[in-house]
Amino acid sequence: PYRRPRQPKITEMQRRCRLQFCKKMKGWTFDKFINVIWSDESMFEIQHSPNPKNDRVWAESRDHVPPVHTVKQPAKLMVWGAMSTEALTELHIIPQNQTVNTEYYVSQILEGSLLTSLNRSAENGAVTERKMVETRSDAIFMQDGAPSHTSRRTQNGCANHVPGFWDKA
Question: Is the pTM of this model over 0.70?
Answer without folding.
Answer: yes
